[in-house]
Design brief:
The chain is α/β, with parallel strands linked by helices. It has 16 helices and 15 strands.
Length: about 425
Amino acid sequence: MKTMIKSILVALLTAEARVLLRRTKPAIIAVTGSVGKTGTKDAIYSVLKDTIHVRKSAKSYNSDVGVPLSVLGIENPGTNVFLWIRALAEGFLIMLAPREYPDVLVLEVGVDHPGDMAKLTSWIRPDIVVLTRFPDVPVHVENFPTPEAVTEEKKQLLHAIKDDGVIVYNNDDEQIARAVAEMRQVSVGFSRYSRSAFVGASETNVYEHGVPVGFEFVLNTQDTSHVVRVREVLGLGYVYVYTAAIAVASLFEIPVDAAIASLGKHVTAPGRMRILPGIKGTHIIDDTYNASPVAMEEALRTMRSVKNAKRRIAVLGDMLELGQYSIDEHRRIGGVAAESVDLLVTIGVRARGIAEGALRAGFDEANITQYDDALEAARELERMLVEGDYVLIKGSQGMRMERVVEEIMAEPDRAEELLVRQDAFWKTR
């Protein structure tokens, strides 16, 4: 019964959003991939908002519920039936009288199950599709027969693009490059390595003033080079995020200098490689929003690049929704951790595989501790920290790794501002 009621409510919400799009005809930028969707969507919004009337998806609203909510511009009613009724009434009024509707929508589009993209593309036709990354083992793979099936599901967005649409894509991802090569649309590549792409980046370096405060990279367009500084976060994944945003800006004839200036004011979302001060003079790299193998590997390799660390500590929780690939991927990440950190803390049953993989790679067992609960691990971690430690904290959202950050951050009174999952819905779970 609950499933049927939800289906009816979502159908009504989608109908309102569909009519609204027909009436207002905004340009639609749809962002998909298995890594970096939210960060890319937010960065694109930042480079456009100073010159264009634009709206972006709130938070990570990318599902059959989240996308119509973003189109209508209303809050998620959650599981409250009365809030759903109010949301539908609000959506109906917006549909009838869409005042000052945005010229451009930046929508994050994701899939959890087979058929999800088909539902969305039945009424969303993007003007621009942005493809971030298609890793070998994506998140949500347990709901699909193979990893390739996840990729094929996301690729359906390409076939929904308008006839004169443009594809902005990660030129370093072989799966994406092959998919784009099959399309007839104009394409604009962005790259961390290749100068052959329209927007490429090279010579990436973490920069520090005693402690890491961000990083910088050289961005190369077809005829110019620019230094881009990214503050308050670490991680080479942000090179892809920023180059993608600048590539999109170019399609709206926004100069590269102006796009870089806008990104200089851009504030990244919580829980995505954010640098936070910790207790006892420690430094936290908060990557607690979610976890997949490719993102976990990238975070650990970033950790290895950090200089001036007393000790590099990784606190890693379960990576969920990996299905039959879970055991092997956790063990593989353990091998990466063994090359990247001095101390390893694991949280969760699946994360024991990370410890096992680290041991197999020759990591000292004395430097591994394992817990089942995030809060228990946090309290033990608090005791073991010393000044100068750098702590990477990452795991799937169901592991609630932000609780570890809150326990060891220097300013816990700012948790609501700085951390993920601080609203009433998550606080009661």
